[in-house]
Amino acid sequence: MTKCKALSVATIAALLLAACTSEAPENWGVLVDDQWIPVFDLHTHTGEWDQMPPGFKRRLSERVPTGFKWSMGGATDWMLGTENILSQMNGAGIYGAGVFALYSPHTTGNAPNEFVAEKIAGHTDRLYGFASLRVDRWNEDSKEQLAALESALTDLPGMVGIKLAHGHQQFRFDDERFYPIYEIAGRLQKPMYLHTGTSPNPGTRFEPPYADPLYLEEAIKRYPDAIFILGHAGYDSKEKALNYTDSAIYLAKTYPNVYMEPGALGADRAEDVIDDFVTRVKENGVLNKVIYGSDGVQFPGYLKSHLEAYVAAMQRNGYTADEMRAVLSGNFSRVFGIKAPDNRAVAAAAAGE
Amino acid sequence: MKNGIFDLRRLAMPALLAMTLSACSDMPQEEFATVTLNGTVQMAAGPMPPGALHFRLYNLESLEGELQHALQEIEDFDSDSPVFSHTFEYPLHMGTGLAVHAWIDTDGDGIFCTPTSRLDPGGLAYTETTPEGEVDMTITLSANCRAANWFYPPMR
Predict the structure, then answer these.
(1) Could you tell me the domains of chain B?
(2) I need a labelling partner for B21 at 20 to 30 A (CA). Which of A40, A58, A285, B32 fits?
(3) Of B18, B115, B154, the CB nearest to A217
């Protein structure tokens, strides 16, 4: 680490830690109709500045004024660190969260499986790892990559699923060379999170074969034992439109092994479409297939603001408490076999009863 | 006058600090070379079907270390003719070599194959040499619905 980076890490970390640290709440979850509903956030990211390509660094740096760009390395490493993820979860009342590995050197960079395992170590009751693999030299090294994925899923503690981002990793949904990944997911019973729709990150593929989950239908049919969670539920973030959401709903409605995640739909960027989204999934009868996620922890307070926006949208659009419970934790618990602690039991334990 | 100098110093100090710290930035310096690609598209077998030709240019290899990867997109362009010429700014700071992917939109839907329409042929030509000035390439369309990474790196 350079002296510059060390200085920025120390300064930013000290300032932000002092300002933003949250302790575990008295009650986990969100309060709806006098009931505490537990919350899992399927979708968060870890990573580090040094593993990001120039285009993505430039995009992140646009968020700070000229003269402060030197601070981005330290601020990013702090933001994506374990303490901040847990602190943001505490602040939002979120009990557990998925933490994704990435191998997207074209776009958002790398967060290797071993790095993620290290980040969640000691917290695997609340942080759940999703392993991934490189696909950019598939003709040369697919066997090695598949073996490494399988090894990460079976040998690294806390790995509960697989993360893929076709648009970031630049491989088509309908390219059957990659179907062995889905075979592993089914055989090892590790649900897959697959980024669908687009993203504003530079280098992302925006064309339908990388964004429209309908291109996955053949794979979904061919691997019924593999669980496909359609990340962002087909939200076209670049166009701020629900361009591929109906494809995601169709697949979730048709196939028992398909679920959806509404990551980033609670962000400010999506405020014009969130009501349409929560209404569409409710009217189509697929609330038993929606697993809440945020795509955090993008900035201080993001996990909380995303959750509040999503809960408010569900309330505005007539969701019952049971429907909200299914989306926020019930479906996650059913798919991953992970349950949130009961608030009363936690309180009783704390009181020594 | 004295107050003026004092105010200037107060402004200059943070500016100097910011400039000094900006030197810590690890963003690469951008560097481009103007390249003209003269190309020809041909079919591996049979006559060339009608339809608009779409092209995407890539650095063949990009970045270093753990971030090194194949096929970093540079830009897209279209042509109505299989014989074409296209001038572009090649990003030297992003990598080496040049790859050109081409496909024909045989059904005119603007999409390189859909789940039900699988007749758009594609192909890739590449060179490991970083391009300078004028470059000549021939792209052979040999497989329907195949993206650039189906052709490169070549099958081991």
Answers:
(1) 32-151 (2.60.40)
(2) B32
(3) B115
How many CB atoms sit inside 10 A of residue A91's CB? 19
Look at residue A64 in the predicted model and tell me its pLDDT: 83
- DSSP codes joined into one string, A266-294: TSGGGTTTHHHHHHHHHHTT-GGGB----
Nearest residue, CB atoms, A4 vs list B24, B114, B153:
B24
The pLDDT tens digits of the residues spanning B40-92 come to 999 999 999 999 999 999 999 999 999 999 999 999 999 999 999 999 999 99
Tens digit of each residue's pLDDT (9 = 90 or more) over A241-252? 999 999 999 999
Q: What is the ipTM of this complex?
A: 0.89
Burial of A19 (C-beta count, 10 Å sphere; 0-12/13-18/19+): exposed
Where helices occur in chain A by DSSP H, the ranges are 3-20, 54-61, 72-79, 82-92, 113-120, 138-155, 166-169, 179-188, 208-211, 217-222, 245-254, 274-283, 302-316, 321-325, 331-336, 343-350
Using a CB–CB cut-off of 8 Å, the residues of A that contact B are 2, 4-5, 8, 51, 53-54, 57-58, 61, 66-71, 73, 105-106, 109-110, 112, 135-141, 170-172, 174-175, 177, 203, 207-209, 214-215, 217-218
Question: Looking at this protein, which amino acid is placed at residue A109?
Answer: G
Per CATH, the homologous superfamily of domain A37-44+81-350 is Metal-dependent hydrolases (3.20.20.140)
Strands B52-62 and B69-79: antiparallel
